From TrEMBL:
<keyword id="KW-0378">Hydrolase</keyword>
<dbReference type="InterPro" id="IPR006148">
    <property type="entry name" value="Glc/Gal-6P_isomerase"/>
</dbReference>
<dbReference type="Pfam" id="PF01182">
    <property type="entry name" value="Glucosamine_iso"/>
</dbReference>
<dbReference type="InterPro" id="IPR039104">
    <property type="entry name" value="6PGL"/>
</dbReference>
<comment type="pathway">
    <text>Carbohydrate degradation; pentose phosphate pathway; D-ribulose 5-phosphate from D-glucose 6-phosphate (oxidative stage): step 2/3.</text>
</comment>
<feature type="domain" description="Glucosamine/galactosamine-6-phosphate isomerase">
    <location>
        <begin position="22"/>
        <end position="243"/>
    </location>
</feature>
<dbReference type="GO" id="GO:0006098">
    <property type="term" value="P:pentose-phosphate shunt"/>
</dbReference>
<protein>
    <recommendedName>
        <fullName>6-phosphogluconolactonase</fullName>
        <ecNumber>3.1.1.31</ecNumber>
    </recommendedName>
</protein>
<comment type="similarity">
    <text>Belongs to the glucosamine/galactosamine-6-phosphate isomerase family. 6-phosphogluconolactonase subfamily.</text>
</comment>
<comment type="function">
    <text>Hydrolysis of 6-phosphogluconolactone to 6-phosphogluconate.</text>
</comment>
<dbReference type="GO" id="GO:0005975">
    <property type="term" value="P:carbohydrate metabolic process"/>
</dbReference>
<dbReference type="InterPro" id="IPR005900">
    <property type="entry name" value="6-phosphogluconolactonase_DevB"/>
</dbReference>
<dbReference type="InterPro" id="IPR037171">
    <property type="entry name" value="NagB/RpiA_transferase-like"/>
</dbReference>
<dbReference type="GO" id="GO:0017057">
    <property type="term" value="F:6-phosphogluconolactonase activity"/>
</dbReference>
């Protein structure tokens, strides 16, 4: 029998860590510190920082305390940015997650170069399969290096959650919840418009180094309780459970976390 390696990664998924802040402003402030810590850890490990972001209310909360800082904490030249999901519309369309992030965040950071932001190929909008494969190739290029990798390991993935418990474009009951091979998959029947999208799959989410849901406001209350208190329901957001050493966090405000019985943790870096 081989000797037991005490440091071998456990197969038990990470338990979510819940932070709750008085309001969404405090949430944004602490989220910025968390992102900077993730950035610094990643740069010291590999000299770059790979981040994937969602759309919805997240980009605005994310940008609030990352832009216009005067402490030189951000090493923008090391950032490589992907989208957890994207709608199949032109990049200057108001439904585009890239467009949203550009308006709320990227356009306010002149140091970020367009080449650091991985967007969908607009010439493939009529062919979701091809477009999805092409986006997956961008992940392969960013993560594989010289050696083939089984799964990409993002330094940080930031997620939202919809009122039905969806995250990325992974919706309740959809066949993509069981996708095990593709890193990126097309979806043409999204219940949330627009119907055609691409999305990261669980093999990507559950291999990330760190993930964080970012949830503010009373509208998130009921679903957050279900996701944290009743994981057996198997809602899409509950299925985000990375294997250690991956960590999963919920950054919430008190309005969102009001009813969950899940234990809150003190926020410290
Ligand atoms: O492209 C999308 O539709 C988003 O990435 C989606 O997954 C979003 O994160 C949730 O729907 C939450 O949206 P809100 O933050 O606006 O509630």
């Amino acid at each position: 029998m081989p000797p037991v390696d005490a440091k071998a990664p456990s197969q038990t998924p990470a338990e979510p860590i819940l932070f709750s802040f008085p309001d969404s402003d405090q949430l944004s402030r602490n989220l910025a510190d968390f992102v900077i810590k993730a950035q610094n850890d990643a740069i010291s490990r590999r000299n770059k920082f790979t981040l994937a972001t969602s759309g919805g209310s997240l980009p605005k909360m994310l940008a609030k305390y990352l832009i216009n800082r005067d402490d030189n904490a951000l090493r923008w030249d090391k950032w490589e940015i992907f989208f957890c999901d994207e709608r199949l519309v032109p990049l200057d369309h108001e439904d585009s997650n890239y467009y949203l992030c550009h308006q709320e965040f990227f356009s306010k950071v002149p140091e970020l170069k367009r080449s650091q932001i991985h967007t969908i190929d607009e010439s493939l909008l009529d062919d979701p399969e091809e477009l999805s494969d092409a986006y997956e190739k961008q992940l392969v290029q960013a993560f594989a290096g010289k050696e083939a990798v089984r799964n990409p390991v993002f330094d940080l993935i930031l997620l939202g959650m919809g009122p039905d418990g969806h995250t990325c474009s992974l919706f309740p009951g959809h066949e993509l919840l069981t996708e095990q091979d593709r890193w990126v998959a097309p979806i043409e029947d999204s219940p949330k418009p627009p119907a055609k999208r691409i999305t990261f799959t669980y093999p990507v989410l559950n291999h990330a180094h760190r993930l964080a849901f970012v949830l503010a406001g009373e509208g998130k209350q009921e679903m957050l309780s279900k996701v944290l208190d009743q994981p057996e329901l198997g809602l899409p957001a509950s299925r985000v459970r990375p294997s250690p050493p991956g960590d999963i966090y919920f950054f919430t405000d008190n309005a969102a976390s009001k009813t969950t019985k899940y234990e809150r943790s003190d926020f410290k870096l």
